[in-house]
Amino acid sequence: MRALALRNHLRFHYAWVVVGVTFLVMLITAGTRAAPSVMLVPLQRAFGWDLASISGALSINLALFGLMGPFAAACMQSFGLRKTVLGALILLAAAVAWSSVMQHSWQMWLIWGLIVGSTTGATAMTLGAVVVSRWFTARRGLAMGLLTASSATGQLVFLPLLAYIVEHHGWRPVIWTVAGGAALVIPLVYALMPEQPASVGLRRYGDADDAPAQAEAPKTNPISMAFGALGKAVKVRDFWLLFFSFFICGATTNGYIGTHFIAMCGDHGLTPVQGASILATMGALDLVGTTLSGWLSDRFNNRVLLFWYYGLRGLALIYLPYAFGLGYFGLPVFALFYGLDWVATVPPTVRLTNDVFGSREAPIVFGWVVAGHQIGAAFAALMGGILRSSYGNYTLATTLSGILGLVAAVLVLRIRNRAVRVVVA
Q1: Greatest distance between any 2 Cα atoms in the chain
Q2: What's the burial of 10, exposed, middle or buried (CB within 10 Å: 0-12/13-18/19+)?
Q3: What are phi and psi of 185, to 5 degrees?
Q4: Which of 57, 215, 228, 308: disulfide with 109, CB 3.0–4.6 Å?
């Protein structure tokens, strides 16, 4: 790694190689997290499990995916970035492969709820925040936008493929496809992801030549480190504004639409492949929207950007129940506006967290903010299933999600850009 980094640093900074490897890891994570949405109906048919039971397992997955964030960031600081990511990927691949032989709903809860939720929590948004904080002082928004776009690319690559596989070959080949993808990126992480720029004789991207070397963080207990950061952050009002706005972000994206959209399409006569194709289209649009959001977050007021993102998302969701009957002016219009906005909120949220808490403490604090995102996702995944079972359609759940988006648009305008020192060690 060191020889490769030093040989090419005059042409391009090795930080972009690390971004590329991290992009692939987060892409596989997104593909893994997309798999349950195409398996909802096949699992119901294969085992007779009701939607509420499966949604319960997925709600655990979503909650743990977020709750693992601050502890994963602390583990990366205490035990090392590469060791933490490699351990998570190995466990993820093994657990997903194991689920191919599950027969009972408790196994779904254990594997896809507990294990997959925990391991993907170490290889998603928090990983991106740690990499950006360690490797960049300039163009942080662009780098985070590219990494966040991996979730959109994961949908674009995996959803139509997985939907085709499940429709023609059943749900078990989906499992082996996902497990194989996780296994493939393990050697890339081992070979190409150093701990930090100093490990390969470099400074962070954007640092001046005479800038002091980045100091190594103290290696302390990751659990006490994570809770120490939380104890200090909860005393700051901006933390709660970031937390609750990101709670709504999770509820209105992967918690609700990511989990229930294909089943919602089925209620309106669309096949799983058609529903997955619409999600993939939104993923392609979000690849553009999130990358652009990262670029904008380096240049404009991040609170104002978030106001527009949440507001437009809320309006799109309120429109969705009517979109299924409007032909070319229905789902295509929804997919356009919602797709560009899917996770465009992440780069401005990361920038605001860095502005408030500082670059050293921000990754762990952002991990707790991500926990709010996934608690919101778990809430929406569970309530979406309950409301669908109770009312026979998704109209009420979709409308409530849209209203939440409008509430978040108001909340983010209250965030102040002031630095707060949060000592985590």
Answers
A1: 65
A2: exposed
A3: -85, -10
A4: 57
Q: Which parts of 298-394 fold into alpha helices (H)? A: 302-323, 331-340, 346-357, 362-391
- Quick one: 43 exposed, middle or buried, by C-beta within 10 A (0-12, 13-18, 19+)? buried
Query: Which contiguous run of DSSP H or E holds residue 177?
Result: helix 172-192
| Integer-rounded Cα radius of gyration of the chain | 20
Rounded CA separation 10/223 (Å): 40
Q: Does residue 289 sit in helix, strand or coil?
A: helix
pLDDT for 375-420, tens place per residue? 888 788 888 888 887 888 888 988 999 999 999 999 999 987 555 4
| Residue 138 DSSP symbol | S
Please state whether the predicted TM-score (pTM) of the whole model is above 0.85: no
Spatial CB neighbours of 212, under 8 Å, sequence gap ≥ 6: none
Q: How many CB atoms lie within 10 A of CB 299?
A: 9
Tokens of 333: 């219009």
Digit-coded pLDDT (tens) for 331-365: 888 988 888 887 788 889 988 988 888 767 788 88
**Angstrom distance (rounded) from CA 52 to CA 50:** 6
| Chain-centre distance for alpha carbon 143 | 15
50: left (phi over 0), alpha (psi -120 to 50) or beta: beta
Which is nearest to 147 in space by CA: 279, 355, 293, 272? Answer: 293
pLDDT in tens, 96-149: 999 888 888 888 888 888 899 889 888 888 888 888 888 888 888 888 888 887
Q: b/e string for 56-65 if b means 16 or more Cβ within 10 A?
A: bbbbbbbbbb
CA–CA separation, 28 and 19 (whole Å): 14
Residue with tokens 């985590």: 424
Residue position matching structure tokens 């005479």? 210
